[in-house]
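Structure representation.

___
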Amino acid sequence: MIKKLISLVCTAALAFTMTATAFADSDVEYKEVPRDNPKSLLLLGDSIATGYGLEGYVEGDNYSADNYGSKLAEKYSITEDGYRNFAINGQTSEQLLEKIESGTYDKSLACEVVSISIGGNDLLTLLIDMLSKIDFSVVLTGEVDLTDLLVNEMPEEVEKLSKGADENIIKFGENLTEIIKLINKKNPDTNIIIQTLYNPMNTGIDTIDDLYQEKITALNTVISSQDNCIVADVNTIFSSSDQKLVQKDMTHPNDEGHKLIFDVLDEKILECEFSDTIEIQKTTVETNKPKSQLKFYIIALACFSGLIVVTVLISVVVKIRKKNQ
């Protein structure tokens, strides 16, 4: 009988201990620790971002040359897994939108910064199409002045270029808005940076140069008016620089140009907030428990004390009975 009582007391003590432990504060706490630099970066867009034409550049390999994306990844010590450059030569805003809609970049969009250079080809394709209709053989021989040719003999082509550019700018705005919206939907925590476009055109033909500047300005206005993104004003920095920033093709940035784009993006990225989430394990029993928990402890303690008293009384009764026998 005594052994059973002892066993009962031990069981009760164990149950009480386990119950108290369950009410102990053993939850994991999470704390945000600020960090200066990003750990992941994704580049999207066109040949400005691929590093086209730079020394060492290999077609289709966006990591072969020291473009501004590589410079950023190096500065922030981003690992190979953390840095992705999926820009495509000649890509338009519509093509980029299709890629994002298809889910092609979904895995890589789980990053802290998405930098986008897009829009140049939305305009450039129209200009190339118009220039392809010019017989440059007569221009090169001096038989015809190119400016006169465009103004006097091809005014309808210039007008077509202007109207086509206006239509493309409107469409570009719609595409860009959707691009930003989709990226934010796929990853609400990422920082989207959109670069304005610089004007590389310096053909010496006022009709072309002035028209292109007008359309670039309109396109940059569309970029600057976008919500839920950060605008990196590459255009203003390029326009105010005395350096030669483009290659001989009068389109793509040279090494100095990429350094300048790096500086603009670096400034914007460092304005963003980054952090790491760390776990803090708590194992101490807090004294300031809610009233419901305190009530439980009081009841449990009373039951435990009562059990001990009952056990002692039974033990005494058993001893008295044995003594009287």
In short: The chain has two domains: 2-27+285-324, 33-277. DSSP finds twelve helices and seven strands in the chain. The longest strand covers residues 28-35.
